TrEMBL record:
Domain Enoyl-CoA hydratase/isomerase: residue ranges: 11-337
One GO biological process term: L-valine catabolic process
Name of the protein in its database record: 3-hydroxyisobutyryl-CoA hydrolase
EC identifiers of the protein: 3.1.2.4
Lineage of the organism: Bacteria, Bacillati, Actinomycetota, Actinomycetes, Micrococcales
Coiled-coil region: none
Keyword vocabulary terms for this entry: Hydrolase
NCBIfam families listed in its UniProt record: PRK05617.1
Source superkingdom: Bacteria
Record keyword Hydrolase present: yes
PANTHER family: 3-HYDROXYISOBUTYRYL-COA HYDROLASE, MITOCHONDRIAL, 3-HYDROXYISOBUTYRYL-COA HYDROLASE-RELATED
Catalyzed reactions per annotation: 3-hydroxy-2-methylpropanoyl-CoA + H2O = 3-hydroxy-2-methylpropanoate + CoA + H(+)
Length: 345
């Protein structure tokens, strides 16, 4: 079983158990998680849910996009469409669960790993946590509801930090996750087993009260020195303007950030920014719907197979994108894919 589910006292326990693949989610795992949540939703003996990842290296490294690529190349794109549709439905079900849902992020959590953690009521990080949405390097787009939660980060009213994380795929650690509200508690890795034992004995609230450390122990947020520059740059309305602002800045951080963006898939960058702009005025459900529309469109394009090849299959990091430049991407075509944001008021 790649997803283990059991009860410990009044806690429903979920464990992603595919450590050789860094607990990457495949369709069977998504269905296993959904089945357990649906079962426990109306079970009065289960008061809350806790999810962890096996193996010690990763909570969950994301969705299994290699399998999605293989389906597309085999002419079975509908299998990939089903994967994303069921994954996003799971994300929505987690957010709507009428019981506490606690994710313990110890290790890597990328892409789909954030989809099965960030929508919960409590998100615990250890000093080994590493969070990222790396999809723009894959010819894909940040998804799993990220265009909602990255548009509503703590202390980021303009959404600039969320845009920075989504477009660049930058990794952040526990300190940044706590500062941005992606995480709610910091627990040292060597205390996780005790936290889980106590959660089963007396519930997660009491266990967290005992084992959660001062967030300051997670260290200084790595993004803190760059927040002003991120705000000044990523508040721009188009990817082209973001790149122009970076080029005009002339410092090492700006040059490095511009270089990172220029490696990414141009179409993915434009799609991600349009999704994020829509997400700022949308509900999570609306964001998930738009992400699914974008996902189905993107996986049918050559850039998806090429990006996954370059990053995860051949690992040469030399993707050939079409179109090759951001200013060649038709943003209007992308906007036409999306459900219009609701009117203000």
């Amino acid at each position: 079983m790649k997803v283990r589910s059991w009860t410990d006292g009044t806690v429903g326990r979920l464990e992603l158990d595919r450590p050789a693949a860094l607990n990457a989610l495949d369709l069977d795992m998504i269905r296993g998680l959904r089945e357990a949540l649906d079962r426990w939703r109306s079970d009065d003996d289960v008061a809350e849910v806790v999810i962890t990842g096996a193996g010690g290296r990763a909570f969950c490294s994301g969705g299994d996009v290699r399998a999605a690529r293989e389906a597309v190349l085999a002419g079975r794109a509908e299998l990939a469409d089903t994967f994303f549709a069921e994954e996003y439905a799971l994300n929505g079900a987690i957010a709507e669960l009428p019981k506490p849902y606690v994710a313990v992020i110890d290790g890597v959590a990328m892409g789909g790993g954030l989809g099965v953690s960030i929508h919960g009521s409590a998100r615990v990080v250890t000093e080994r946590a590493a969070l990222a949405m790396p999809e723009t390097a894959l010819g894909f787009t940040p998804d799993v509801g990220s265009t909602y939660f990255l548009s509503h980060l703590d202390g980021d009213p303009a959404g600039a930090v969320g845009r920075y994380l989504a477009l660049t795929g930058a990794r952040i650690g526990a300190a940044d996750a706590l500062a941005l509200g992606l995480a709610t508690h910091f627990v040292p890795a060597n205390a996780v087993d005790a936290l889980l034992d106590d959660a089963g004995a007396e519930g997660t609230a009491a266990a967290l009260a005992r084992h959660a450390a001062d967030p300051a122990e997670a260290g200084e947020p790595s993004l803190a020195p760059y927040r002003d520059r991120i705000e000044a740059t990523f508040s721009a309305g188009t990817v082209t303007e973001i790149l122009e602002r970076l080029d005009d800045a002339g410092d090492d951080w700006a040059a490095g950030t511009a270089a990172a963006l220029r490696i990414m898939c141009p179409t993915s960058l434009v799609v991600a920014l349009e999704l994020l702009k829509a997400g700022a005025a949308s509900t999570l459900g609306q964001c998930l719907e738009n992400e699914l529309r974008a996902a189905v469109w993107l996986i049918a394009r050559p850039d998806f197979a090429e990006g996954v090849r370059a990053v995860l299959v051949d690992k040469d990091r030399k993707a050939s994108w079409s179109p090759a430049r951001v200013d060649e991407v038709d943003a209007e075509q992308i906007r036409a894919l999306l459900v219009p944001a609701p009117a203000a008021g």
